[in-house]
TrEMBL record:
The keyword Cytoplasm applies. PANTHER family: CYTIDYLATE KINASE (PTHR21299:SF2), CYTIDYLATE KINASE/PANTOATE-BETA-ALANINE LIGASE (PTHR21299). It catalyses: dCMP + ATP = dCDP + ADP; CMP + ATP = CDP + ADP. Keywords: ATP-binding, Cytoplasm, Kinase, Nucleotide-binding, Transferase. GO terms for molecular function: ATP binding; CMP kinase activity; dCMP kinase activity. Its main location: cytoplasm. SUPFAM superfamilies: P-loop containing nucleoside triphosphate hydrolases. NCBIfam families: cmk (TIGR00017). InterPro entries: Cytidylate_kin, Cytidylate_kinase_dom, P-loop_NTPase. It comes from the Bacteria. It comes from Pseudoduganella namucuonensis. Transmembrane segments: none annotated. GO terms for cellular component: cytosol. This is Cytidylate kinase.
């Protein structure tokens, strides 16, 4: 199957919108591969923090991104054979990821890595620019969103469940700052792709959101 004909479903949206969980379940249901593109930015951020790389040195950060030894096994993420699944989910790593993601050279370094995930029988790709920049010819595009309050509550529960400490007010502030950075950056900003289905999940269960995405997918080519 030529790569360009392999189906891709893109699921973009702001942080803690539930897109990761929805993407995971949709991929599982369809037997598709999964690309968690945020993890790539988080891995670069984690490496930068560990190596004490200046967060304003675009060139050095891009070099780090280019030379990451990454592997995904089921739900686990490995950096040079170390399991960093939990480490990359910490708030400081997410915030750093959002900062370094504004650099064009970092995005360029991760571009080819992301395209490499497009394998038969199909791919569900989750991130910020999956439908706008990385897979503009995707078979279906979704933009998943939720109110900032709903997202902060979800993130709070996730962090507590993982045994991390969390504070609602700090989380709200961080989410707003990240939304602002991700939406207003000059390159690949967070915006719904043209033709994307927009889904507000503030009042929706994960199951309902997954069912809606699967229904849209099933309807492709039928109208
Ligand atoms: O989805 P996430 O919260 O794991 O992503 C972490 C950060 O990475 C996010 O704040 C912005 C950046 N990111 C990006 O710029 N483009 C993507 N496709 C995915 C994530």
């Amino acid at each position: 199957m030529p790569t360009s004909t392999i189906p891709v479903i893109t699921i973009d949206g702001p942080t803690a919108s539930g897109k990761g969980t929805v993407a995971h379940k949709v991929a599982e249901h369809l037997g598709f591969h999964l690309l968690d593109s945020g993890a790539l930015y988080r891995l670069t951020a984690l490496q930068a923090i560990r190596r004490d790389t200046s967060l304003t040195d675009e060139h050095a950060l891009a070099k780090l991104a280019e030379h990451l030894h990454i592997s995904f096994t089921g739900d686990a993420v490995f950096l040079s054979h170390e399991n960093v699944t939990d480490a990359i989910r910490q708030e400081n790593v997410g915030n750093t990821a959002s900062k370094i993601a504004a650099f064009p050279a970092v995005r360029q370094a991760l571009y080819g890595v992301q395209l490499g995930f497009r394998k038969a029988p199909g791919l569900v790709a989750d991130g910020r620019d999956m439908g706008t920049v990385i897979f503009p010819n995707a078979s279906m595009k979704v933009f998943l969103t939720a109110s900032v309050q709903a997202r902060a509550e979800r993130r709070y529960k996730q962090l507590i469940a993982k045994g991390f400490s969390a504070n609602m007010e700090d989380l709200l502030m961080d989410l707003k700052a990240r939304d602002d950075r991700d939406t207003n950056r000059a390159i690949a900003p967070l915006v719904p792709a043209e033709g994307a289905h927009v889904l507000d999940t503030s009042e929706m269960t994960v199951e309902a959101a997954v069912a809606q995405v699967l229904q849209w997918h099933a309807a492709i080519g039928k109208s």
